[in-house]
Each structure stands twice: as C-alpha cells, then as structure tokens.
From TrEMBL:
Pfam families assigned to the protein according to its UniProt record, in alphabetical order: FCD (PF07729), GntR (PF00392)
Entry-linked PROSITE patterns: HTH_GNTR
InterPro entries (UniProt xref): GntR_C, TF_FadR/GntR_C, Tscrpt_reg_HTH_GntR, WH-like_DNA-bd_sf, WH_DNA-bd_sf
Name by which UniProt lists this protein: Transcriptional regulator
Span of domain HTH gntR-type: 18-85
Record keyword Transcription regulation present: yes
Name of encoding gene: carR
C-alpha cells in the first residue's frame, strides 16, 4: 500500500489537525464549564501547547473553534480570553435567546410527529417530574441543557440551531448554579413540564409563549451573577 504524498498528504495532515483542535477545544470547554478557567482569564498559548502536546497552528485552530462556540474572545496581541460579560451583555444575550428559543419551541410543536420526536419528548418530560431534579441543583442544570438542545433539534432548523449555539453562558455556569434555590428549581421544572405538554399537544403558540417566559426567568436570575459590571 502506497503512502499518501503531495497534496493528499497535506489534506490528511490538515484533517488530523482539525480533529485534534476540536478535541482540545472540548477539553478547554469543560474547564470553562467547571469554573477552572474564569471569565476574563487569558489562555496562555505556551502552557496549553505544553499541556496538550500540540503546535502553535493547532492551538490557534482551537482558539477559532472556541470563539465560534462563544466561549472566548480573540484580542489583538493578547491571544484568547475567556469571554467576560457585563449586565448589559447578559440582558441582550437572553433577549435574543428568548425569541429564538420561543421560535424553536413553536417549530418543535409543528414537528412533534416527525421521527422520534414524540417519544423523546415524553421521556424528557418524565425526567422533570422526578424529585432528584428539585433537590439537586447540579443535576437540574445537567438535565436542563439536553432538554433545551433537544427542543432546538426538534425544530429542524439548522440555521436557528447555529445562531443559538454561541448564546450560552458556560463561563458563568458555577456562579449561576450557586444562585439556584429549590424554589427556582421547582418553578423551572414546572416550566419544562408545561412546555413539553404544549409541544406534545402540537400547540405552537402556547409552546412559544411558555418558552419565552421560561428564558425570561433565567435571564432575571443571570442578572444577579456576582461580578457583572
């Protein structure tokens, strides 16, 4: 078997670099999610290259992927910085999410009988009636992400999903978690059940309104995150 050479070898090398960059980006994302990298913290290129055993071109590809996910900001001569937000930034971000996630819920209701949508949502709804969701804020947050992502997926609009991807606040996950009370978890769980019921009923108008109200509640809590200017 002959080895690839010339342009083919270059393509294989670039493909491998992209895969490595994606893997490293996911590992850095986990650090941001876990609060090991804080909003405003600069990512040290040389340290990351040493930690992950990668070259400068790969780390820069990693930065681009993190930027596309809304996790870091790229600044001239300062490299990558974990995205830091102000209260205004947070309000504007949630205002957009409110409209887009409402739209996703409405589209999900229209698509409820396509593929495995109904079966998946019935299973997802069952999760939100369990007591462990109410008494464990971390589990609540962990279940919250796939619920919202699942509804966005049910919408069947790839551009909508792409627009929502960077509109998250992973860098503030731990601060947000500390603000969550049992009362908040109970209200949020009830919201999820009502949203699921509206989608299962094919009621796009109600699903949209309920999702918008739910995201607004999350926005109100986010404004209380310490350190926002």
């Amino acid at each position: 078997m002959t080895k690839p050479h010339g342009l083919e070898a270059d393509k294989n090398e670039k493909s491998n670099d992209k895969k490595v960059a994606e893997n490293v980006a996911n590992l850095i994302r986990e650090k941001i999610m876990d609060g090991l990298l804080s909003p405003g913290q600069r990512l040290i290129e040389s340290e990351l290259m040493k930690e992950f055993g990668i070259g400068r071109s790969t780390i820069r590809e990693t930065y681009l992927k993190l930027e596309a996910k809304g996790l870091v900001e790229l600044r001239h001569q300062r490299g990558a910085i974990v995205k830091k937000m102000t209260k205004r930034d947070m309000a504007e971000l949630f205002a957009i999410r409110q409209q887009l996630e409402g739209m996703a819920a409405a589209l999900a209701a229209e698509n409820i009988d396509k593929g495995q949508n109904r079966q998946w949502l019935m299973q997802a709804r069952e999760i939100w009636s369990q007591d462990y969701i109410l008494s464990n804020e971390l589990r609540h947050m962990e279940e919250n992400v796939p619920f919202h992502e699942g509804i966005i997926g049910m919408a069947g609009n790839h551009l909508l999903a792409k627009m929502l991807q960077p509109l998250q606040i992973p860098g503030y996950r731990m601060q947000y978690l500390r603000l969550m009370t049992r009362d908040y978890c109970e209200k949020s769980s009830d919201d999820h059940i009502k949203i699921a019921d509206a989608i299962l009923a094919g009621d796009s108008e109600t699903a949209e309104k309920l999702m918008q109200d739910h995201v607004k509640s999350a926005a109100d809590l986010a404004q209380r995150i310490p350190g926002l200017e």
